[in-house]
Description:
The protein is mainly alpha-helical. It has two domains: about 70 residues, no CATH class; about 45 residues. The protein is built from five helices and no strands. The chain is rod-shaped and about 80 Å long. The two termini are about 50 Å apart. About 5% of the residues are buried.
Amino acid sequence: xxxxxxxxxxxxxxxxxxxxxxxxxxxxxxxxxxxxxxxxxxxxxxxxxxxxxxxxxxxxxxxxxxxxxxxxxxxxxxxxxxxxxxxxxxxxxxxxxxxxxxxxxxxxxxxxxxxxxxxxxxxxxx
Length: 126
């Protein structure tokens, strides 16, 4: 029933059709003039048949950007290094406190925590 060509379409369907036309234009299947003409028709469409007519000569659209590939090994290695470094920071601060006899070295602990938290989830801290 929903696939009937006489069914009226709403804003969501028109926007989806324009997005698909944009993908076809980005893939080089439509010229600028064709894209503008079809986009205007999609904006003015009132039924499913009017929208379907815009895509009769086009293949099904596929996004032209591949999904990002996660480098899990590098991410795990960075997480391990970050955790180890953060665990050593209080000991480093304690040693620096005794060497320089200044309590301000203990501020290194929250600063390191903030810096390591800010780089969480990044590749290699970059």
